[in-house]
Amino acid sequence: xxxxHKDGTxxxxxxxxxxxxxRDKRLRTDGAAQYKRLESEFTDLAVDPYTPRExxxxxxxHVTFAFIGGGFAGLVVxxxxxxxxxxxxxxxxxxxxxxxxxxxxxxxGAQCDTASMIxxxxxxxxxxxxxxxxxHAPEIRDHCSAIGRQYGLYDNALFHTQVTDLAWDETRRxxxxxxxxxxxxxxxxxxxxxxxxxxxxxxxxxxxxxxEGKSFHTSRWDYGYTGGTPEGEPMTGLADKRVAVIGTGATxxxxxxxxxxxxxxxxxxxxxxxxxxxxxxxxxxxxxxxxVAEPGWQKKWQExxxxxxxxxxxxxxxxxxxxxxxxxRIRAQVIDMPPEQRTPEGIMAAFEDADNQKMSEIRxxxxxxxxxxxxxxxxxxxxxxxxxxxxxxxYLQAFTRENTQLVDTDGQGVERITAKGVVxxxxxxxxxxxxxxxxxxxxxxxxxxxxxxxxxxGGRLLSDYWAGGMRSFHGLHVHGFPNLFFVQQNxxxxxxxxxxxxxxxHAETVAAVVAHAEAxxxxxxxxxxxxxQQWLDFLLTGPAARLGSTECTPGYYNNEGQxxxxxxxxxxxxxxxxxxxxxxxxxxxxxxAFEGLEFA
Length: 600
Ligand code: NDP
Description:
Layout lengths: L11 H15 L8 E3 H4 L1 H4 L15 E7 L3 H12 L5 E4 L8 H4 L11 H4 L3 H4 L10 H14 L12 E7 L4 E6 L4 E9 L8 E3 L10 E4 L5 H4 L15 E5 L3 H13 L2 E6 L5 E2 L8 H7 L4 H13 L12 H15 L7 H27 L1 H6 L12 E2 L3 H4 L5 E5 L7 E2 L3 E4 L2 E4 L2 E4 L9 H5 L3 E2 L6 H4 L18 E3 L12 H21 L5 E3 L1 H11 L37 H15 L5 E3 L1
Parallel strand pairs: 2-3, 2-6, 4-18, 6-19, 8-17, 9-10, 9-17, 10-13, 11-12
Antiparallel strand pairs: 1-7, 4-5, 5-6, 14-15, 15-16, 20-21
Helix pairs in contact: 4-19, 13-14
Bound molecules: NADPH dihydro-nicotinamide-adenine-dinucleotide phosphate (NDP).
NADPH dihydro-nicotinamide-adenine-dinucleotide phosphate (NDP) binds next to helix 10.
């Protein structure tokens, strides 16, 4: 299907038709039900391969602040609370150490996709200089441990521990936390930072359990089998192996070049190609860092990045990468428009033009680098933000290797697994090892993903309170659930390409609110019902969530093409965008009035 006019310019209508046809081909009636949870349905594949689980006695004490989740959220909230003088802070974490996503994801080649300078939290506080513009996972994990050590967060932490129940005791005005290790302790305040993408999933393929070779999910990489290390030592165990990687999302894009390098043979099973733009990673130098790292630099860079993602007109682009490029292109289109065309529809049209241009370049890149039939099959036919944009300088190149084969399934995916291998396009491919790069659960109920429900005042369950959609004040506080903080993105700045920015910002609010409550001798704090409703009404005045259009190719952004239903319309951000939220909350915090919260 030609998508360009004879003069080489993009035929917008033809491109829309091509995008729609590619999407339709991939729609399935089972939607998100096509997946199975690793932890509940494949328990032997879900075991933590990185840290042995240590036996310990249950705890039954009291802490001022308990935080559920030991990823960036728990670490930055802990750091800010320690700075605010809260000394007994306990992190409860299901992994064997801090790091969250960076604890589990040790697959070869894992690295951040957002520039380290803004992605790695607390760089100023720790004095850490990232070694590369896009740091690799071991450095990020070490950074998590360093934060834990610097702020004394290891002292009270409970690892390999999952919360099973969280209930508010109105008489004593504290939370009772129960875990799968038999713990039952109390906390005056609780924070939840369980992460947006932490429940690993496998495709629900018939025969997974029949496979007689080795198989694992990317978040449980088995270096005992593959050899090598997360630091990049060659995986000598794969030298005589035929390996299948199932999936071509952001994880697979980082995995594939490494397996291609070390395995005897690699087969990559593709259902939907990712858009893979250039990465341009580079080492950061001490001279550069010393020049940049003036007091307050990281916040300034984070805010500049967010400003560049929107359609405002920031004076400079400090990070200057593939994420900010799209914003720049839209701005360029808007600048070129006559003022009378700068209507919301005009801006959406400019957005589409910028996107079409960008995606054409990305498709050309695949064809240029890989060439031939595979180069065509690796082209992504959808708008860039329909799926997670990817960036890599070695992924496409891997398909030019003799030992690496793309098995494109024309949008249909792998059919089944047999004792010997993988069946796709009606053909069985025998392999020694299957790597499932099949992602993480998204879009299920918050409490379902967290793994426990929360019982607030008067026995009200969070799952009931949110049955019609999330309700909160600033995304952080929920009426009827006192002294509880939800450190996540919705109803605040929403998803941004620099997720840790959401977390460090909420951490400042948590610390400010708790410090105020403690200084004033209050037992509890929660938003009033009116403040919560007003915040929700205000959010609904803005545009509907940008991600998740059902016109997009299926994926977790749009609930596998089916959309997210009525209650998900509350998965919103500030009407003025992420920067609008950060500015609002900054003023709200600074005022010291904590308007909307009730202290008692
Ligand atoms: P994704 O959900 O993005 O990708 C899963 C992949 O598995 C898709 O390519 C999917 O195809 C494929 N798949 C599923 N079922 C089948 C099947 N039956 N046959 C063939 N293929 C199948 O998961 P990822 O782990 O790649 O990424 C998840 C998220 O984690 C990212 O979007 C990103 O937000 C984050 N991430 C961040 C990184 C970073 O910042 N450095 C690195 C990696 C991940 P299809 O597309 O057709 O559904």
